[in-house]
Q: What sequence folds into this?
């Protein structure tokens, strides 16, 4: 079977920072979604899955990816107390002043990155941001 050389294997990553009510969508995740201009965050509380999908600017829930605002070119940051309340209702064992990383999967066919909240990894405390 011939391998498609245009397609590389990447692991999407998001970081959940409960201290700052921040989700950091890593650049590799955006690359896996073909660097969209707008994304949509979806949460399925029944399955405990967070999904990120490309969307259009007319979607009233769309988040615009401002390429110039990517933190040091590595992450897109989303701040939302309401989003964190929803996430914590699914994962009540998360500690408030901790950060977690979730490695996901990307469906290139449907242009969606999936993150199972049961697969969280605690990010060790350190003085620098998680990258």
A:
């Amino acid at each position: 079977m011939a391998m498609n050389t245009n397609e590389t294997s990447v692991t999407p990553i998001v970081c959940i920072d409960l201290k700052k009510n921040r989700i950091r969508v890593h650049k590799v995740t955006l690359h896996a979604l073909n660097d969209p201009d707008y994304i949509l965050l979806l949460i399925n509380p029944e399955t405990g899955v967070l999904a990120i999908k490309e969307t259009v600017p007319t979607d009233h829930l769309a988040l615009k990816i401002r390429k110039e605002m990517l933190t040091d070119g590595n992450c897109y940051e989303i701040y939302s107390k309401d989003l964190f309340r929803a996430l914590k209702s699914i994962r009540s064992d998360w500690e408030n002043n901790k950060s977690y990383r979730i490695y996901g999967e990307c469906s290139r066919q449907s242009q969606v990155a999936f993150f199972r909240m049961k697969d969280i990894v605690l990010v060790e405390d350190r003085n620098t941001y998680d990258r």
Observations:
- Helices lie at 27-32, 81-90.
- The chain has one domain: 13-123.
- Confidence is low (pLDDT under 50) at residues 1-8, 127-131.
- Residues 13-123 form one domain.
